[in-house]
Amino acid sequence: MKKTLMISTITALGVLTGASAAQAQNSDENFEGVKVGVQAGWERRKIDETLLPAPNSARLNDKSSGISYGGFAGYDAQFGSFVLGAEADFSPNGKTLRSTLPGGGSIELDSKWNASVSGRAGVAVTPKLLAYGRLGYGVNRYTVRGFAAGNDTAVATDKVTGDGLIYGGGLEYAINRNASFRVEYRRNDNEASLGSNQVLGGLTLRF
Q: Are 163 and 137 in contact (CB under 8 A)?
């Protein structure tokens, strides 16, 4: 009887120890699962390019800084300390770039929205801190307008969807397994020499 009781106790302790170890291991996976989030920060955008079809072509050379904001959704998979993920994001705001033309008149590029899909890979340097890099593809929808001197009505208009490479990296800190903060630098290189540098902070919720 005593021998049976001892064996049962040892077995129970082993099961509990194993469960605790598994739970501890899973609790370290703070960057796993489906996620949604919001992000906002600072953006500096610039362009130096000849735009609009001939004969209304004009050179636009300008830069502008301001707030950028949007949302994102994706999925991360964690393998020990390594994290791989995919993400899509959308930003409904943009910047307007303008140049005054020789002899009068002006040209402007009015960004309407930006979107991207990207992959990221990183290493959890601690159970709650992830360092990662990002690489992907982005699109930018914008309208280009040309104005004659002293006229507020555009004499030429062109709607364009530009695309290009996005890349960058950042740090993400897990508050718990369901929420985290991140800070990220991101570079966007669109066609027609339109580019931007962004520093974004974000809040992520995981499911």
A: yes
